[in-house]
Specification:
heterodimer; A: mainly alpha; two-stranded antiparallel sheet; 15 helices; B: two-stranded antiparallel ribbon; 11 helices; 4 strands; 70% helix; globular
Chain lengths: 327, 307
């Protein structure tokens, strides 16, 4: 593991220097979007991958974060103040999540998955109809605070880093082991004194907070919100699942790999198959589930584990023959 | 009785009628979902998209060959049954025992399937709203009631009435099938306890295939019946998938009579809500009831579902 000790600081320096070297706004835009999707994928992964609670409606939290930011501007504050949406949007999303989690996590079965899906739909309907606050279907439009991609690059880099560190430290603490235990066997976890409702809720709150913060970043970056996009089931909720599954659910680096591939794919498809890109992603989801259920990082880990086992088996097979040769 | 009061009663009666008639169609959608959920213990998130497929089959049969939507049920039911069997056999069954960290693999697969179906329709048929212009689309039957010196006139939309009737007949046939035939009993046995059923010699793989086929055929029938009274477009499936699981939770998961009750309750709620509260929030009323049921009676209105 010596190589990774040098690789990580080196990679960090490269990542920090990118905006100084890369001047193409298009390329920076791609990098910013990728990092946003890493945040979304990682957040979904904490709840879905590590805690085993599948959400089909994370767009609800994404949209709440985005709308919180938009509403801050609509209330008359400057777009610079709207950056506080990263905090308030996250908190608003966590609040909604707390309500839905409190209702659903007491029950077993697919209730949570279903409720959160319905929640995203209802919030979309509310956003379209509650014109006084949301401008309805028109959406909210304003001029973003910064002029130049580098600012956004560093902000989303900070967000993705904080998100990664929080999730990793959670997963390395007791809390993380509770999450895994609940995913593997809720009854066994409960019999060991873990309160499943409480810890599923904890996982959901962290996940929703960062998804909301991601939504707030999206709004601050684009300066435009459309209820049909931020609350979209196929474009947000399902793609968060795709990003996680493509890279590898329940792995630390999976969502990052998935997000970069997802952004690359959607850019290619935007050019080559403009009206059918979702067909491709639909087929991709089906193909991953059938052929690579553990995603890219997960499959690599499996491969590594198998290789290790084979080496161990070879070594074990080699030892008993050695004395016989000597004898 | 003053004319104002009579007018209010007329409005209420009209709202209740359209709610119940709509509820009959919802019941058919919910029956399909409930059947699948009962046997396979999964939610089918492509349910609405499968309905959309049936709606397009009916639409093209009418447009190309002038087949009446009700007659086209004879084509739609077997086609959708085969589609369902195929999906179960070639897509869902193989991932049943896959070794993965993520639970609900099959449900995720139905998400992908729904995405493919709705966007394929978008690519093939464009996003245009279409309708099936049958001659009886706006035909109505009136029923006048004399009450306290005033006449209350209630109207029944003919295609809705027919759709309701066919939905109820299909529901009754499903009951007979599940209750009286060997295959039906095998389906119920598999829903109760898959392993025990297999030990008793039930071919649970085949039963699961038949169940998914039946569920698909039922929601397909709902699609064909909706065509004369609704419009169709490629993304119509999503909202109906939501309705399907609201109905299923209302009735109690996997509970067949409950699904019919749930369908009627949702139909009434939407109808009452859109007239007396707000039309814009029509799609949200189901969710409000859904949450209330989750909090107060998670086993469903009949209290018999799995919680």
């Amino acid at each position: 593991m010596k190589s990774s000790r040098f690789l990580l600081p080196f990679a960090l320096v490269v990542i920090l220097l990118i905006p100084a070297v890369v001047k193409s706004p298009y390329l920076l835009h791609m990098l910013i979007l990728s990092m946003l999707w890493v945040v979304l994928g990682q957040s979904w992964n904490l709840l879905g991958g590590f805690t085993g609670q599948i959400s089909y409606g994370h767009a609800a939290f994404f949209g709440v974060g985005a709308y919180t930011t938009g509403i801050i501007v609509k209330l008359g504050y400057s777009p610079k103040v709207a950056w506080s949406g990263l905090l308030f949007g996250g908190l608003a999303a966590a609040l909604i999540a707390a309500l839905i989690g409190w209702i659903c996590f007491r029950l077993r079965g697919p209730y949570f998955s279903l409720s959160v899906l319905a929640l995203a739909e209802v919030l979309r309907i509310v956003a379209i109809n509650f014109k006084a606050l949301t401008n309805g279907a028109e959406g909210i439009l304003y001029l973003p605070a910064f002029n130049g991609k580098a600012y956004y690059y560093y902000i989303v880099l900070a967000l993705v880093t904080v998100n990664f560190l929080v999730i990793r430290s959670v997963m390395r603490s007791k809390l993380g082991f509770y999450f895994l235990a609940i995913r593997e066997d809720q009854d066994a976890a409960e019999s060991l004194g873990i309160n499943p409702t409480r810890y599923k809720l904890t996982s959901l709150l962290i996940s929703a907070f960062f998804t909301g913060a991601g939504g707030a970043f999206y709004m601050n970056y684009l300066g435009f919100i459309d209820p049909g996009i931020v609350f979209s089931i196929p474009d947000i909720s399902v793609m968060m699942i795709l990003v996680t599954m493509l890279g590898g659910a329940a792995t630390f680096w999976g969502p990052a790999v998935g997000a970069v591939l997802y952004i690359l794919c959607s850019e290619f498809l935007r050019v080559w198959l403009p009206s059918g890109h979702l067909i491709f992603f639909g087929i991709l989801i089906i193909a991953i589930i059938i052929f690579f259920p553990n995603g890219i990082v997960g499959s690599l880990n499996d491969l590594k584990a198998r290789k290790k086992r084979r080496l161990a088996a070879d070594a074990a097979a080699a030892t008993p023959t050695a004395p016989s040769v000597a004898a | 009785m003053s004319p104002q009061v009579a007018g209010q009663i007329e409005l209420l009666g009209q709202v209740l009628i359209s709610g119940i008639l709509l509820g009959g169609l919802y019941a058919l959608i919910g029956l399909g979902m409930s059947l699948i959920m009962g046997v396979m213990k999964i939610i089918n998130l492509a349910h609405g998209e499968l309905m959309m497929v049936a709606m397009y089959i009916t639409f093209w049969a009418f447009t190309l060959w002038k087949v009446d939507p009700y007659v086209s049920l004879l084509i739609v039911l077997p086609l959708m049954f085969l589609l369902g069997v195929g999906i179960q056999k070639y897509l869902l069954a193989p991932v049943m025992d896959a070794n993965t960290v993520l639970p609900q693999n099959q449900v995720l697969l139905t998400v992908g399937l729904g995405l493919v179906l709705s966007n394929l329709a978008l690519l093939l048929f464009t996003a245009n709203y279409r309708s099936v212009p049958v001659s009886y689309a706006s035909k109505t039957i009136y029923w006048d009631i004399k009450m306290g010196g005033q006449t209350i006139s209630l109207s029944f939309s003919f295609p809705f009435l027919v759709a309701f009737g066919i939905a109820m007949v299909l529901g009754a046939l499903l009951f007979l099938f599940l209750g009286k035939t060997d295959t039906g009993r095998a389906i119920r046995a598999t829903a109760q306890d898959k392993r025990a059923a297999a030990l008793m010699g039930v071919d649970t793989k085949k039963i699961t295939m038949i169940t998914f086929g039946l569920g698909t055929a039922l929601v397909g029938a709902a699609g064909a019946l909706l065509d004369p009274v609704y419009y169709l477009y490629p993304q119509i499936g999503g909202p109906f998938t939501n309705k399907a699981f609201v109905i299923t939770v209302l009735g109690g998961m996997g509970n067949i009579p409950g699904a019919i009750l749930g369908g009627l309750v949702l139909g009434l709620a939407e109808s009452l809500g859109s007239v007396y509260i707000s039309l814009g929030y029509k799609e949200a009323f189901g969710f409000v009831i859904f949450v209330a049921v989750l909090i107060f009676m998670p086993k469903g209105l009949l209290g018999k579902g799995r919680a």
